[in-house]
Write a structure and sequence with these properties.
Layout: E1 4-8, H1 15-27, E2 31-36, E3 41-48, E4 57-65, E5 68-69, E6 80-83, H2 88-92, H3 96-107, E7 112-115, H4 119-124, E8 132-133, H5 140-145, E9 149-150, E10 155-158, E11 161-164, H6 170-184
Parallel strand pairs: 1-2, 1-6, 2-5, 6-7, 7-11, 8-9
Antiparallel strand pairs: 3-4, 10-11
Family: Belongs to the peptidase C56 family.
Pfam family, one: DJ-1_PfpI
Protein name: DJ-1/PfpI/YhbO family deglycase/protease
Length: about 190
């Protein structure tokens, strides 16, 4: 039986930050499930940069079904967690079911991959204190306020936590996460 990995996300997540790890981890032989506030068709978005804009723009992205609701997740069934970015973490951090899931992964020291705005979720449960992380660069002050040391790098590894800035860093992020994952939770 394949080792299971959980991706937690919601509407307005960055399309690439959900689908790249989803497909890359499946390619490695992991059984990957996507959880959201409810079982439904999720609407992802595409963030990109336009000439003349001071920040990224947002366009509709892919849709994808959530396999299960946060309330249906048993963290003990999963070997690792992936937290994509986009706008979803802004509202997901208020979900008490999701906070319980996140806390269970950190309490058990399971591998966690977070990217872009995803660290807003780990900050919300107090799991960044004393850790090294990266995130979307505009979150540097948020990461420091959460007690983390922010590093502006493609990928930052701190024990079983692997973080990245945004989708252009996918290759390095997944390479580092897979190194941690293979050591802690091989695919089969």
């Amino acid at each position: 039986m394949a080792t299971k990995i959980l991706i937690v996300t919601g509407d307005a997540a960055e399309s690439l930050e959900v689908l790249y790890p989803y497909q890359r981890l499946r390619e490695e032989g992991y059984d990957v499930h996507i959880a959201a506030p409810s079982r439904k068709q999720l609407q992802f978005v595409i963030h990109d940069f336009e000439r003349g804009f001071d920040t990224y723009t947002e366009k509709p992205g892919y849709t994808w079904p959530a396999d299960l609701a946060f309330s249906e997740v048993d963290p003990g069934e999963y070997a690792a967690l992936v937290i994509p970015g986009g706008r979803a973490p802004e509202y997901l951090r208020n979900d008490p079911e999701l906070r319980k899931i996140l806390k269970a992964f950190f309490d058990a020291d399971k591998p966690v991959a977070q990217i872009c705005h995803g660290p807003l979720l780990t900050a919300a449960i107090g799991s960044l204190t004393g850790r090294k992380v990266t995130a979307y660069p505009a979150l540097e002050l948020d990461m420091q306020a959460a007690g983390a040391t922010f590093q502006d790098a493609e990928a930052v590894v701190d024990g079983t936590l692997v973080s990245a800035r945004a989708w252009p860093d996918h290759s390095r992020w997944m390479r580092e996460f897979l190194t941690v994952l293979r050591a802690k939770a091989p695919a089969t």
